[in-house]
Design goal:
Blueprint: H1 2-29, E1 34-40, E2 43-49, E3 52-58, E4 62-66, H2 69-77, E5 82-83, E6 92-96, H3 100-128
Antiparallel strand pairs: 1-2, 2-3, 3-4, 4-6, 5-6
Helix pairs in contact: 1-3
Length: 132
Amino acid sequence: MVLARALHRDVISIMKSNELHQELRRRILNLPGVTEQQKAGIHEDAFFVGRTMFMHIHGHGHCDIRLSKGDQERVLAEGKARAHRWSPETGYVTSMVDDEQDLESAMDLIRMSHQYFAGKANGRRMGAMPKQ
C-alpha cells in the first residue's frame, strides 16, 4: 500500500512536470517572432528570434537563457538565475522551472532575452533596408 501511494505521487509529479513544460513552451512560442527547433544539437528544445537562438531547454524545466552582458551581470548579482555551466561568457544564465512560481521568474528572464534579441534582429533588418 505504501509503495502504491509513492508510485501514485511519482506519477502525479511527472504529469505536473509535463504540464509545466508544455505551458513553458506555449508561453515562449507566444512571444512575437519566436520559432522552435526541437532536437537542435544538444538542446531538446531551442527557441529562436530571427536566426538567433535566445534560449533552450534541456529536459523538463532546465532553461538556459541568453542575455545581454549587462542583464546577465545584474540577474546573477540579484540571484535571479545561476551562471551557465558551460558558456557564461556568451551571456547565458540557467533558470530551473519546477513549479508555477519558477515559471513566472523564468518567463521574466525569457522576455528580457527575447526583447534584447528581437531588437537586435529588427535593427539588422532596418539597417539592411535601402535608404530613400
